[in-house]
């Protein structure tokens, strides 16, 4: 059976493939083809997350479901794997990796996942002395070790519970307490992903500082090389400038996806199908309704004509799922259903009163049925007179 194409894979399958590649790249060295494949998978995950609108800037970590928490790590994995890609223009690789890491940190900060110490350090402009730098490094190292120890504890606890569950299943065939175990697994999974994100933040801050220093060193080396010439504009300098201009345009094109996001999927059922792998984002899907606008555009009773008006109209949006029809449309739908029901009842009454339906009954059939029912009722009354209620239980009484 051939391997499925990247476009045919669901979001969980793409993320799992990329996570395995990232884990292999962190534990040992992998070839460049595998790294590029992991970057492509993560870029596809990032695009699907953007189109599905899984995260919003006005949400916090408590508003995100447990199944979607892991997708916060896509940008971090992409930044780490991009840094390991071998390319002639190393400075461009460092810039792309730093951009992904900064985006991951800023998004976690919006989700209230960044520790308060890091926020205070960044607001004060970074470490001003060697003592501050050392204190920051020590605090970050302690958070990293605490997160690693917590992940190890969760893993061991899950293994112990799995062994005890298997032993209980062998000894007792009756399965008890499955709902409680499922609840514990859900809380434990959420705790594990939050700890993983905390560990990723520690690594992202350290990696970002290292990449900044490497970029400064490479930039200084390139500047010395350029200053070492005779002052004439050589073809090498022109090629270097052309590469920088092309890299800037490529970077601007990649940033354009986030400055102007893709049109969101307004149909909740289609979005759920895309998440679970039953549909693809590229599939043509006709939405039966458009999302209601609660912003200024609805106040003036006109459709937004410019991008600015459209963004302004999306400022105030409800936190609940919007209705698919208005009250008037629902009333008309109910009236239509009621009319069909009344027409069907009228047709049935007309058929019941018609001559061909009455002709199907024999002349004396109704009278015979009435006599039989009356005789049966009389026999039942006689039996109840001979056997009053509770007569059968008198033999069970001690004094009976």
UniProtKB/TrEMBL annotation:
Composition skew (Basic and acidic residues), residue ranges: 373-388
A Pfam family this chain is assigned to: TAP42
UniProt-recorded Gene Ontology molecular function terms: protein phosphatase 2A binding
Entry GO terms, CC: cytosol
Region Disordered, annotated ranges: 355-400
Record-level GO BP terms: regulation of dephosphorylation; regulation of signal transduction; TOR signaling
Coiled coil start-end: none
Signal peptide: none
Function of the protein: Involved in the regulation of the TOR signaling pathway. Seems to act as a regulator of PP2A catalytic activity.
Family, per entry: Belongs to the IGBP1/TAP42 family.
Protein name per its UniProtKB record: PP2A regulatory subunit TAP46
